[in-house]
Amino acid sequence: MTGALAPRPANEARRAQAVVRTGLVANPKPELFQIYCDLAKDITGFDSASFSLFDGEMQCAMAASGRDDFVAGNKGMRDANNICSYVLLSPDPLLMPDLREDSHWKNHPKILDGSAVWIGYAGFPVVNRDNYALGTLCMLHKSPRAIPKDVIPLIQKITKNIAFLLDLQTEQKQLTSAKMLEALQAFQQHCPDLKIDDFKYFLSLSAELPADTIHLDALIKLGLVQLVDSQPLLTDEGRHLQEKMKIQPRTFNRVKVTGEDAASMLDDMLSQLN
Q: Of 17, 45, 184, 192, whose CB has the highest number of CB atoms within 10 Å?
């Protein structure tokens, strides 16, 4: 074993881009994947199960079961000693009931110096619909342990469900970006002289989120907003623009956020236009 990097899949550049497009490396959502780690741990009887994504350089922790040291978003280098990195290289699982007896991994530094906590290993690639191995679902055991043959298809079904969720995450980000761009274009056509901040305040009102009245002068002058009992409301023209932008209230009413959360949500939506 050396300090070299782990080998990369042949489609590494496109694969890593697909991982980034999920948005989960920067913003992990362990609640989406926790149940699958719990199921994998229970079905296999291993001490732990964890799901990770792999961007260009790092293994990024998404969810885990049976790990007291787990922190969502933690990252580790994809070096030559990172066993899970090798799971990305094949559509088949990497199964090693006893790492100490594996011809390659028996030379892992932690095996050689006796500090290894995990001895039994089973790693399954999480392959999306574009055939990119975005991550791994790995089971670890503190003593030798093999997965029964009839359990392997069950774990593969779990990885397919995880991959489906990853594809949905990517689709949602792309859809949100497309809709926001469409809304911005409609706003600019109607109000070519207004700035991005005016667009943000108009979105706030359309989403029934708080908007400071001192920043609404431009929208009021254009007849898009009016003050009723000191509260800003969209005018008929404002609601007409809202329809052109395809941001009617029914699109937003499912989420109720206020204060800093509201501002963060809008900032996140706007950032996707870049």
A: 184
Give the 3-state secondary structure percentages of the chain, helix then strand then coil, rounded to 5: 45, 20, 35
pLDDT digits (tens, 9 = 90+) for 70-112: 999 999 999 999 999 999 999 999 999 999 999 999 999 999 9
Q: Residue range 145-167: average pLDDT?
A: 96
Residue 264: its pLDDT value, please?
Answer: 53
Distance CA 169, CA 28 (A): 11
CA–centroid distance for 274 within its chain: 18
CATH architecture of the domain 12-170 equals: 2-Layer Sandwich (3.30)
Query: Secondary structure of 218-235 in the HEC alphabet?
Result: HHHHCCCEEEECCEEEEC
Question: 207: Cβ–Cβ under 8 A, 6 or more apart, which residues?
Answer: 247, 249, 252, 262, 266
Sequence ranges of the chain with CATH classification 3.30.450.40 = 12-170
Question: What are the residues facing 52 on neighbouring strands?
Answer: 61, 136
pLDDT one-digit tens code per residue, 24-57? 999 999 999 999 999 999 999 999 999 999 999 9
Output DSSP code: residue 66. S
What pLDDT does residue 182 have? 80
CATH topology of domain 191-271: Arc Repressor Mutant, subunit A (1.10.10)
Nearest to 116, CA basis, from 124, 125, 107 = 107
Q: Which of 169, 156, 160 is nearest to 131 (CA)?
A: 160
Contact 123, 51 (CB under 8 A): no
Specify the domain boundaries for CATH 1.10.10 within the chain.
191-271
